[in-house]
């Protein structure tokens, strides 16, 4: 019996797959994530052995689990593209049109460059109909409603990759039958493609009719859309590409995070290269936190934001609501390459409080209060930390745009004595931004819980960029 399992990794919106045949007992995993226990568990559930681990390309947004999975199951080989791959670890090379037989089905590798030079997609065929694919694992070449971006290897590579992407989409994917199902490498929320659709699968026919990337009459029009109009690339992507090309460290288990009592925690926090991450809610953080801490709340998207805010060699101290949260938080963090944990605060903020150690607060102002303040106090600087697309869709009148993903560098020139209020869509990213500013010495910073969602709920005034140009 044929089996296919999709594994969605929340926070980074990454999709990986287990495909297998229970009669032959063989299975393959495509693009495994870092914490690989899920694949072993699914294989055991279906009574198959993982014999193949395929990588569609060198990933930029998460740490590959291919080496860890092959080591863990002991029966699998890793298979990588043989084209301009820059892989630096041992694996089996895969060439264009190479066939892999699994009994009831077969996978056929197709070279689909554009997002990266080495990119592979894998057609899925029944063995009895070996020349008629009914599905294709598209990796980061074709998404639901979108396509992979060609600008992640630097400006010198972008033009050539954009041309390859155009040829991949128009000369390969659009020549497949309409009924072919696509299984992409990412869902909505990933920065590997612009405005990826909410559905996790689609068909070639549906994408042919509705995907903007597949509707351009020539390459020049396509290039303008995918290159000139692309959203900013997350700054940590090049670092993860290098890590994945070199071969990620084999992780047989999650790293041990030592529990530190308050005074030991404070001593560690004062060491060079250490960052304190407070994973509590924005309101808890605002009410009292350790000086210098950055608030990246315990939600799936913290994977991406730890990746954005911290260098890979930074040591992390964690503050959690309760010790039982440690493992789930650690899983989120290691997915974007961070595994250097200095410890966590044993007993949480209650222990810190009872030890009588210093606390700081981060003011939280409601939308109603900010509405009054922005009209009464011209010295208040309102920072919109949402993405460019969100900003262009409408923002608070008088706000300045400081995209959170770029704030590590952009806030350097701001006046540390001025007054600021930061907002995003809900307050989560704004709390990251405002806590980052406080950790850099900004004295008068406030967060806006509810942020844009609350602003719209209050039916407050909205400004759009075109209104400013009129």
UniProtKB/TrEMBL annotation:
Keywords: Hydrolase, Metal-binding. SMART domains: Lactamase_B (SM00849), RHOD (SM00450). Pfam families: Lactamase_B (PF00753), Rhodanese (PF00581). CDD domains: POD-like_MBL-fold (cd07724), RHOD (cd00158). Residues 270-361, 376-464 form the Rhodanese domain. Transmembrane segments: none annotated. It is an enzyme of class 3 (hydrolase). GO terms for molecular function: hydrolase activity; metal ion binding; sulfur dioxygenase activity; thiosulfate-cyanide sulfurtransferase activity. Its EC number is 3.-.-.-. GO terms for biological process: glutathione metabolic process; hydrogen sulfide metabolic process. Gene3D superfamilies: Rhodanese-like domain, Ribonuclease Z/Hydroxyacylglutathione hydrolase-like. It comes from the Bacteria. This is Putative polyketide biosynthesis zinc-dependent hydrolase PksB. It comes from Roseimaritima multifibrata.
């Amino acid at each position: 019996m044929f089996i296919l399992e999709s594994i969605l990794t929340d926070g980074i919106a990454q999709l990986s797959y287990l495909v297998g045949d229970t009669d032959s007992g063989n299975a393959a995993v495509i693009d495994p994530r870092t914490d690989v226990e899920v694949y072993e568990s699914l294989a055991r559930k279906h009574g198959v052995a993982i014999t193949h681990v395929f990588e569609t390309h060198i990933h930029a947004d998460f740490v590959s689990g291919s080496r860890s999975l092959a080591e863990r199951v002991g029966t699998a080989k890793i298979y990588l593209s043989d084209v301009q791959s820059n892989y630096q670890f041992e694996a089996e090379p895969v060439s264009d049109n190479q066939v892999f037989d699994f009994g009831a089905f077969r996978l056929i590798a197709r070279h689909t460059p554009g997002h990266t030079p080495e990119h592979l997609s894998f057609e899925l065929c029944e063995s009895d109909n070996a020349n008629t694919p009914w599905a294709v694992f598209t990796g980061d070449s074709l998404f639901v409603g979108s396509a992979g971006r060609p600008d992640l290897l630097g400006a010198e590579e972008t033009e050539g990759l954009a041309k390859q992407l155009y040829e991949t989409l128009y000369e390969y994917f659009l020549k497949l039958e309409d009924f072919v199902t696509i299984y992409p490498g990412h869902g909505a929320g990933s920065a590997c493609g612009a405005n990826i659709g909410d559905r996790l699968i689609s068909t070639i026919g549906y994408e042919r009719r509705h995907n903007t990337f597949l509707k351009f009459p020539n390459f020049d029009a396509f290039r303008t859309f995918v290159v000139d109009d692309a959203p900013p690339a997350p700054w940590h992507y090049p670092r993860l590409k290098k890590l994945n090309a070199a071969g990620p460290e084999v992780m047989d288990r999650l790293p041990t995070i030592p529990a530190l009592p308050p005074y030991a925690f404070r001593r560690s926090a004062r060491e060079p290269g250490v960052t304190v991450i407070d994973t509590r809610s924005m309101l808890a953080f605002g009410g009292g936190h350790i000086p210098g801490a950055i608030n990246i709340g315990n939600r799936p998207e913290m994977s991406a934001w730890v990746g954005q805010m911290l260098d890979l060699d930074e040591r992390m101290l964690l503050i959690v609501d309760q010790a039982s949260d440690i493992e789930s938080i650690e899983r989120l963090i290691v997915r974007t390459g961070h595994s250097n944990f200095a410890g966590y605060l044993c007993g949480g903020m209650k222990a810190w409080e009872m030890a009588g150690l210093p606390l700081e607060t981060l003011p939280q102002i409601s939308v109603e209060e900010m509405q009054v303040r922005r009209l009464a106090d011209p010295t208040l600087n309102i920072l919109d930390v949402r993405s460019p697309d969100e900003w262009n869709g409408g923002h608070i009148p008088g706000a300045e745009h400081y995209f959170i993903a770029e704030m590590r560098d952009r806030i350097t020139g701001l006046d540390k004595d001025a007054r600021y209020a930061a907002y995003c869509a809900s307050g989560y990213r704004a709390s990251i931004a405002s806590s980052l500013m406080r950790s850099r010495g900004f004295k008068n910073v406030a967060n806006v819980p509810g942020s844009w969602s609350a602003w719209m709920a209050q039916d407050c005034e909205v400004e759009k960029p075109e209104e400013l140009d009129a």
